Amino acid sequence: RIDCPSKLIERSTTISPRLTGAKYISKRLLPRARVNFSVGTTTRRPPAVMASAGSVAEDRCKEAANIFVSVCQEQMRPERGRCLVSTQNITEGDLILVERPVAVAQFAWNEACGYRACGWCLRSLETAAEMFTRLAALPSPPALPHPECCSSTPELSVKCKEGCAAQYCTEDCRNSAWQQHHKYLCTEGPHGGRVAKLYEAWREFHQPPETTSIGLLCQIVVAVGNATDGQKETTEDPFENTPFSAFCREVELEGGFKHKTLDDGWAASIDHIRLLMLELFTEVFPGSAAVARLLAPSGFMAMMALVGRNGAGVGTSAIAAYDAKATALEMPDAERDDMDALLNGLYEAMDAESGEFLDCEGSGLFSIQSACNHACVPNAQYSFPNNSAELHLTALEDIAAGDEITISYLDPCAVSKSRNYRQSELGRSYLFACDCQKCVDQIDCPDQSDEDEDNEEEEDEEGED
After folding, report:
1. What is the pLDDT of residue 262?
2. Among candidate residues 33, 11, 8, 13, the one with its CA nearest the CA of residue 22
3. Distance CA 185, CA 178 (A)
4. d(Cα 313, Cα 19) in Å, to the nearest integer?
5. Which of 120, 220, 126 is nearest to 160 (CA)?
6. For 10, which DSSP code?
7. What's the average model confidence in pLDDT over 97-120?
8. Which H helix or E strand runs over 258?
9. Per-residue confidence band for 141, with pLDDT thresholds at 50, 70 and 90
10. According to the model, what pLDDT value does residue 48 have?
11. pTM of the entire predicted model
């Protein structure tokens, strides 16, 4: 465990996010967004979703289908390519999709700094009171009203059977993680020395704020190795017969689009990580041609692009789940005012002590949600209201049956910047030129930000007065 000083992470206002969470300061659940190798998405959980936080039984990751609610379907459209469209009329605030990830992993620095999350579903393993105590440096846990609203159950958590630092919220999660990837990646296992060396190198290369997870990259390699273990390969594509085969992973496209991982500044560090992974997984899957192709320079860049172009940031928090359930309760105004005063004071203390580094955070890959295209003014956003990696996609406005469902790949700060800025970020991270309505409307003023536009409107209104 690494001792992390207060405010270790100073968030940049220029990075983008397909990563999400919630920024807790004096007024709760203010917008926040983060990135995944420059991938962006949404932030604030809308009230309709906040009020629907499920029970512990509903939240637990069980052996079941990954999709639980869906009023959308994936389509291929000539002018848009792969996209997600609604299958019925949707009202603002409605749930569009509830989906569990194909793979998810906590950020290396987040884990090293003591953020305790389940190694399978990324559920926070602390209670809300424990999280407040740690993040606000309180002398003792606060007496939170309505403690029944905290669904975290640390007493049920279990550790890795081999004795490494990995923890899980239930026995089911531990067994699932072991079967899918952890038996290859346990630091107390036969390959533990190489795994620890890889994570250490990753933390040195990828300083906070984190944008993707080395654990997610390792899970992809394990899936490729398992899919081809003892089987005859029928294609040169290492992703064949894995859950990742449908994800886009081009590094360079016509029109001059080149993924930012090809920048000269990344090259040496990325290749060092690649070589460490090659050493590890050549030992784990000896003789695997698919793993060798995946960890060759071109295959590795394709995997980095896959995570960068499709990965969604996952932010879980016992505090957020507790807050959502407590806020949804009916109570007298005086009791609500007392609860708001207590919680807002705790958020202020957390902000002063820990800055914005508050959630259990990681990155994940979601098969259906990844089909969402970008719009600078999207009609949907995703969140993680149940303190787990279960993704909820929610409508920001009414959506007619057959309409495309869009999210923003950029955080609110980036999406408010000029058209030229947004086009540059999207081109380098996602390899496309945005042609959404906002970008079309601003084609004649490409350097104007939303703030500039608002200032002009205010000046016009003052002139009219």
Report:
1. 64
2. 33
3. 9
4. 3
5. 120
6. -
7. 95
8. strand 257-258
9. very high
10. 29
11. 0.82
Please report the pLDDT score of residue 462 as a whole number: 59
CB 158 within 8 A of CB 138: no
- Mean pLDDT of the chain, nearest integer: 82
Q: Name the β-bridge partners of 305.
A: none
* pLDDT above 50 (res 54): no
Question: How would residue 18 be classed by pLDDT, with cut points 50, 70 and 90?
Answer: very low
Q: Which residue type sits at 275?
A: L
Tell me if 198 sits within 8 A of 278, measured CB to CB. Answer: no
Q: What is the pLDDT of residues 341-375, one digit of tens each?
A: 999 999 999 999 998 778 999 999 999 999 999 99
**Each residue of 224-246: b (16+ CB within 10 Å) or e?**
bbbbbeeeeeeeebbbebbbbee
What angle is formed at CA 447 by the lines to CA 445 and CA 451, rounded to 5 degrees?
95
At 256, the pLDDT band (50, 70, 90 cuts) reads low
pLDDT over 70 (residue 419): yes
In 11-71 the beta strands, taken as DSSP E runs, fall at 19-20, 33-34, 67-70
Per-residue pLDDT for 149 more than 70?
Answer: yes
Q: CA-to-CA distance for 200 and 205, rounded, in angstroms?
A: 9
Average pLDDT over residues 91-96: 96
CA–CA distance, 450 with 417 (Å, rounded to integer): 6
Mean pLDDT of 270-299: 95
* Sign of the dihedral defined by the CA atoms of residues 78, 84, 86, 87, in that order: positive
Nearest residue to 159 via CA among 138, 173, 139: 173
φ/ψ of 5, rounded to 5, equals -70, 165
Q: C-alpha distances in angstroms, 246 versus 23, 145, 187, 338?
A: 33, 46, 31, 50
CA-CA distance, 39 to 415, in Å (whole number)?
A: 12
**Terminal-to-terminal C-alpha distance of the chain:** 61
Q: How far apart are CA 356 and CA 170, in angstroms?
A: 28
Tokens at 179, concatenated = 């079967």
Contact criterion met (CB below 8 Å) for 225 and 290: yes
DSSP 18: B
Phi, psi of 438 (to 5 degrees): -65, -45
Q: Residue holding tokens 């992974």?
A: 277
Q: What is the DSSP string of 93-162?
A: T-EEEEE--SEEEE-HHHHHTT--B-TTT--B-S-HHHHHHHHHT-SS----S-GGG----GGG-EE-TT
- Give the angle subtended at the CA of 285 by the CAs of 284 and 286, to the nearest 5°: 105
